[in-house]
Design brief:
- The protein has 9 helices and no strands.
- With 295 residues, it is mainly alpha-helical.
- Helix 3 runs antiparallel to helix 4 and helix 4 runs antiparallel to helix 5.
- The longest helix is centred in the C-terminal third of the chain and has 46 residues.
- It is flat and about 70 Å long.
- It starts with 31 loop residues before the first helix and ends in a 7-residue tail after the last helix.
- About 2% of the residues have low confidence.
Length: 295
């Protein structure tokens, strides 16, 4: 869908009166072109073995299928690692997709060599497979094998947080997809600003699961409402270009963003209060033991 050009000097652009955010989190596809390239080798493998007889054709098709599965696992593994790296507290991926992708690449390479050798030599395909798997691991690395930031955290409470966070991320992704239908750059920027503020609250809850009870309404009910409002606005604005609907939607996002930011600040202040209480309790205990600390 075509979008109207937006900017400071465009008719509907920003006038510079409103303060702009200093930075915005840029979402980059973690898979990218290097992972997509891994789908290509399956094509020449099939093309070069179809006319070589039943056994080479079968080996070629099997190798191509395993290569395609390996490329898909690699994409999923890169995305899972990007999500893992973006969080300070995270479980390790349940399935080591990148390691399985490397093994699949090695098996596919071995089958490809067997399809073209037309001999009973098994050492060459094995060596080619091992080298391919090793190069795959060198190029893309392995999956995170240990959780991070989980020391001293109640795993049951952390699992509850993970479910709420996953639901919140789904709502934010749905908002991002819905606003594209509106074809309005400023609306897209507004949604991205709100998403950054919401994700700040999400990270705060992840780092301290005790904030879940207070923030659950924000990450569930409010985000679901924002998702539904975004979908309705996109449908209406894409058809009518109604400026009143646009202004109402922007006002809603501004109000939600302020509320989310206030909830985040309150969580951080509560954390500081808890720390001060812990310090005072520790000082009292040390004083009873005869240890005096200068404040």
């Amino acid at each position: 869908m075509a979008q109207r050009f937006g900017g400071k000097y465009s008719p509907d652009g920003d006038t510079g009166d409103k303060p702009q955010k200093a930075s915005r989190q840029v979402q980059v596809n973690p898979a990218g072109g290097r992972a997509n390239v891994m789908f290509i080798p399956a094509i020449p493998l099939v093309a070069t073995t179809l006319g070589d007889g039943a056994i080479p054709m079968t080996l070629g098709l099997a190798g191509a299928g395993i290569w395609l599965l390996s490329a898909w696992l690699l994409r999923e593994g890169l995305q899972a690692q990007a999500a893992f790296d973006a969080r300070k507290i995270a479980h390790r991926p349940a399935i080591p997709r990148k390691i399985f992708a490397a093994a699949g690449a090695g098996i596919g390479a071995a089958l490809a060599v067997m399809a073209h050798l037309n001999s009973t030599d098994l050492l060459s395909p094995l060596l080619f497979g091992i080298c391919t798997a090793a190069l795959h691991l060198a190029a893309f690395g392995i999956d995170p094998l240990k959780s991070k930031g989980m020391e001293g955290i109640d795993t049951f409470q952390q699992d509850r947080v993970a479910r709420v966070v996953d639901e919140a991320e789904e709502h934010l992704a749905a908002m991002r997809d819905a606003i594209k239908r509106a074809g309005d750059r400023q609306a897209t920027a507004k949604v991205e600003d709100f998403q950054d503020t919401a994700r700040t609250l999400i990270r705060t809850v992840e780092e301290d699961p005790r904030d879940l009870t207070a923030a659950r309404k924000f990450l569930g009910v409010y985000l679901r409402g924002a998702r539904d409002a975004t979908a309705k606005f996109a449908d209406i604005y894409s058809r009518t270009r109604d400026s009143a609907a646009r202004a109402d939607y922007f006002a809603l996002l501004d109000d939600l963003e302020q509320n989310f930011a206030a909830r985040t600040r309150k969580s951080l202040l509560d954390d500081r209060s808890d720390l001060n209480i812990e310090i005072d309790v520790l000082r009292d205990r040390l004083a009873r033991e005869g240890v005096r600390l200068d404040k």
